[in-house]
Structures are given as C-alpha cells and as structure tokens.
Amino acid sequence: MKSIALLFSILLFATVSIYGQAKAINVDWAKTFGKGTDDIAYDIIKDSDGNFVLTGVTKPKGSKNKDLDVLKLDPLGNLLWGKKYGREGNDIANCLVEAHDGGYIIAGSSSSKGRNKNRLGVLKLNKYGDQVWTNTFENQSGGIAKSIIRTNDRGYIVVGHTKSLQADALVVKFNQNGKIEWGKTFGGEKDDKGEDILQLSNGNFVLTGKTNSKGKGGYDLWVLRLDQYGRKLSDKVLGGYRNEVGKSMVATKDGDLIITGEIETRGDGLMDIWAVRIGKDDSMIWEKKFGGSSEDRANTIIQGHGGYVIGGYTKSIGGSKKAWIIKINGRGEVVWEHDFEGRNHPKFKVRKEGTEINSIAKTEDGGYVLAGNTGLFLMNKLIIKFRHDKDDRRTVDLEPEISFRKDEPIVYDQLPENTTLKSVPVESDEKPKVVVEPIPVYQKSDLDYNIPNSYLKNKNTYAVIIGNEDYTTFQTNLNSEVNVDYAENDARIFKEYANKTLGIPNRNITLLINATSGQMQQAISKLEKLAEVSEGKAKLLFYYAGHGLPHEKTKDAYLMPVDISGTNIELGIKLDDLYTRLSKYKTERVTVFLDACFSGAGRNQGLLAMRGVKIRPKKRAPISGNMVIFSSSSGIESSSPFHDEEHGLFTYFLLQKLQSSKGDFRYSDLSQYIYENVRLESVLLNNKEQSPETQVSRDAEDKWRNWRF
C-alpha cells in the first residue's frame, strides 16, 4: 500500500514568455506543482465559492504506479489543500465537475495490482477533499473516463472508452448518490472512443470523439446523439481519408455545436487544430484549421468572454512545444491567440521547457485559468491565471511556491461506513458484450428496488439470462424489426433475483444484453459443458426476454438474436434444438423461462408486420430430461408489456412471485400464480388474451409440482 501521507514539492517554472498576435495579456499568477516524475493537470474548474479545483495524476519518485490527485487553490492561486487517492495500481483522474451539493465528482480510471485492465472509476469528495463515496465498474475490456458533466436530474454522466485493442465509446449515467442508472457502449469492429459529452436543453445527450469503424478512412470525428436513457438517436461522421478527431465541444445559444479537435492535413501524421460548427441536424456550417508546419493539437474548448477559447499546444512556433490558446468568434475567425513557453532562467536551478494546456476555466474578472503541464519528460502541473489586456510583449517570472500541507488523504480502500466498491457491467449498443454485474436500467417498479436476500444457496445452479431489446440498431436496413420494450430491464432485474433471492452465485450467471447469434450459441454451449462435467448434479436455468418467431414454412419456433431478421430465421436459435441441448446430459433439473411469443407478433406488435398475419407455431415435440418450461403466451397470442411497471407482463408477475415468497415456492404454485395474474391483467390493461403455459418433460411429470429452488 502506498503511503497515504502526501507531500508535494513545487518545482520552479522558470519563465513564461507571452506572445500576442494582435493584443497581449496580463499574467496575474502562475504556479507549477509536482515532485514526482509524471505530474499532469488534466482538468480544472472554478467552483461556486470562486476557488479553483484541478485534478490529474502524480507519480512519486521511485514508484511504478500513478495516483490521482486533487488540488484546491484560492482565487489568488494560494494552495488551500492537496490530496492524492490511490492504491496498489494506477489511479488516474481525467476530469471533474462540481457536485450539486458543493463537493466534487472526479472521474478517470483505476487498476488493481496484478490486473491488466483499468476500471472506470468515479470518486465523490466534499469541499475539503474528504471522500464521500466511490464507484468503479468494468466490462470485459475495462474502461476509462474522459469527461463528466452534471445532468438536469441532479445526476452525472460520464463518457470515455473501453480499454481494448478495438475500443468502444463508453457512456455511463449516475444518480446523485453514485448509483449507476445505465451504461452503454457504442462502436463497430475497429477503434471508437468518446471524448466529451453535453446535455442539451431537451434533455438528450450528444458526445464527440473519434471512430475508425465508420467514415472514409483512418479516424474520423464522431458526433453521437442519445436520448436520456442512452438510446442512440443519430450519429454523424465528419472527415476525409486521413485522420480527424473530436476532443471537446460547446453548445451555442441557438443550439449549434462548436467542436474542436485535430485534423491531419499533409499526410505526414502531424496534426493541426480543427474547429467545426454543426447545426442541430449535424450539417456542417463551417470548419477552420489552425497550425503550421509542425504538430499542433487541441485539448479543450470553452465558451469564453464574448467568444470561444481553444487550448492545446503548438510546435509550429519556434519548434519547441508551447501551450497555445486561440480565441475565435461564432464564425470561427481568430480574435486573438497566445503561446506560453517555459525556458531556462538563471536565478532558478530547475530548468523546464515544453508546455501544454489540457483545460481552461473562465473567471469573473474577464480572465482565464489554464491547467496543464510543463516539461518534456519529467513533467509538472502548470496553472496560469491571465487576463487579456493590451498589445505588447512581456515576460513574467514565476515565483517559487510552498509545498503541500501534510494532509491525510483517504485512499480507495478506506471507504466511509456503509459504502462499497462495486463492479458493474456495460451493455453494448453495436458490439454487445457479455456483462457480469448488471445494474437496472429503468428502476421504476418497486420490484426493481426491493429485491429480497434469502437463505437459499444454489451453488450447483448455472444460469443464462438474455434480454434482447434493441433490434433496430443492429438491423438498420430492416424497417419491420421493432424493439422489445423493457426486455433489457427484464433480464437485468431477473439476474438480480437469481443471485440475491435464489442464491445463484454471480460467477454461475451469464447475462447477455442485446445478444447476437454467436453470443447466444456460446452461452448455450457453456451450459451444455457445465451439465456434462457436473455429472448429474447441475441445475440449469435459462431465461429469455425478446422476440420469438415461427418459421413461415415449417412453423418451427425460434428465439431471435438481435442481428437476425425474419428473412433469415434459420440463423436464430431453434427452440427444439435449445431443449435438446439443455437435456443432452443428465441434470438434476432444467428450468426455462420464455417471455416471448412465437406467432410473429411481439410486445410492440410489429416483428412480422410485413406478413400481415399471425402464424400458429407448430406443436412442440415432447421434451426430455428433468425440464420445466414456463412460457409467457400460447398459440397465436402475443406477449404484452406492462408499461406502468416497465417490464414484460409475464416477467413482472414472475418477479413479483420471487419477491413475495423470497424464493420459497413450489413450481406448481409459480405456474398457477403467473397464469392467473397474467391472464387477468392482460385483459384489464390491453383488452386481449395472454395465457401463459407450463410445459413439463415426461421424466418430470410426477415430481415437478413440488420442486423448489
């Protein structure tokens, strides 16, 4: 464990030379902080008290790992407190926002000793730097946060990307207490990353970043619009045959977006700063390029005093790396620009050169505070407070700064009472992934919150739980394939009951959200193998919420992966084959729950709209093994949603029985409960019949009624 005592020394940044194109600036103060080999400030904000809070990373001398740190300065640049937070791994903060209650929310990535992947982490501090709560999560590819904002429901939303060779953009929505409300990934077969996110006046979100899966070649600037639940509304790719990247953006008063990033213009791999303005329909209004013969990069843009200010660095002015800021107007025209260069100074022992701006905060006196780093190899945090003034050139010496107080920071593994570190999964938008620890998306029903913990221990039970809701994203060329309302929520909440109420260990549960054919086949194969090696001791559980479909000619029933349409139904999961595979090896029992219909009508009444008729599925062949199948509907009936509770009607009463009984019920009682309640509520709510069925194998006919989990 790293020492939790913090001692930063302030390295001296020798000279700041300020050059102006048309007008110059007055530097009010400038500070550098750092004692280690890698001290960088990635984000800075001005809080409601007028103080400045910045966060980033520090790497103490002799250490192999990095810690995230937070500094708080008063309006004059005096240090109020500085603390670091970390454990036996790398902990990096990339962004922060002031909390609704006056504290601070920090987001970045965290890795434990011996782990190869990072987990996206969020940390809540009070205004004194004391930890209030923390939450981490991961999918199979890990994750990292790049930007965080407050949302209009007093929550927070984070954008970033997964940590893999083919990364996906990652978006996670938190409530005000740090609980995850939903999380999604977006991307294709190549590298796709999110960099910044905004919430618009209508409550929807827009993110920018880069994609290598779409566009004309290389990376392209990516604009992705989501609704308040993370469902994709549209995406737009801007760029040519080389590389273009979106890094940061602001919204204009009339609802346009100004995005800054980088563009490769010469084909030599060197980038220029790129700014684009797009309308509400993502159409290009204008684009501007800034740079010279060498490398020039943008990291941030803010709405400034009467314009927009871009921050990054340039190597085109004098050849060395210099922090660079550019102020533009709403037409993309340069109002003024300045570069900041660190150079040797005879009266200081420490000599630094190379500066970069990562973040900008606006001040009430018409000025700005810049945060970034100085140094080419051994870097220190750099903070500069300036005001735009007159047309001249001036040099300002930076005075030495005192060291941090020896505060006792709270590290990640020393949590406040009643808080926990929690790993949660992310479901995929375009490349679905097997998630391990789901969090409910909708959480509207009482069933979603009050999940009872029981005494049951089903360590020999193995479950596959599938929620296929989003068909339109995966089949954009097929207008007839509609989504299945609340199927994701059905699967997520059922998984929570399977673990907490039925006592099935998390490691025994495979949860698939918006699963493709290949993923479903692999999950079923895993159940087969577990049954084989358990030599008759295993209990198998299979739950599915999504579309079912009958073959138009053979009438055979199929479960539909999200990437399979009615025109190639043979690529789906044939029910008879599923039952055969689940009963291939001797088991103690097999339980199947199907919240799907097989008539060609879905919860949204549209999967087979092109056929115009419902198809009666073929009567199923007798099933074998110790198997019981609970189905949501019969014959040509459709399976309805329960909109008020945001669940499928069948799943709602299945969960209600699990909740009221705490998992202690006979199978026959469950069958009767679901049948009676679904039939009644379907008529009351939808004025149509829906009659759940229970199908039992011959081997289980005499014993299934008294089975219990």
Structure notes:
By secondary structure, this protein is mostly beta strands. It starts with 14 loop residues before the first strand and ends in a 13-residue tail after the last strand. Mean pLDDT is 80; it is low at 1-23, 344-351, 390-443 and 601-618. Helices cover 11% and strands 38% of the residues. Helix 2 runs parallel beside helix 5 and helix 5 (649-661) crosses helix 6 (667-686). It is elongated, with a radius of gyration of 29 Å. The longest helix is centred in the C-terminal third of the chain and has 20 residues, at 667-686. Strands 32-34-33-35-39-40-43 form a seven-stranded mixed sheet, sandwiched between helices. Strands 23-24-25-26-1-30 form a six-stranded antiparallel sheet, with no helix packed on it.
Question: What does this entry show, briefly?
Answer:
The chain is mainly β and 709 residues long.
Which regions contain 5 or more consecutive residues with pLDDT less than 50? 1-23, 344-351, 390-443, 601-618
Q: Give, in spatial order, the strands making up the sheet with the most strands.
A: 32-34-33-35-39-40-43
Radius of gyration over C-alpha positions, nearest whole angstrom: 29 Å
What characteristic shape results from the CA principal axes? elongated
Q: Tell me about the biggest sheet?
A: 7 strands, mixed
What is the SS-derived class?
Answer: mainly beta
Q: Give the fraction of residues assigned to helices.
A: 10-25%
Counting DSSP H or I runs of 4 or more residues, the number of helices is 6
Proportion of strand residues: 35-45%
Distance between the termini: 43 Å
Query: What integer is the average pLDDT?
Result: 80
How many strand segments?
A: 43
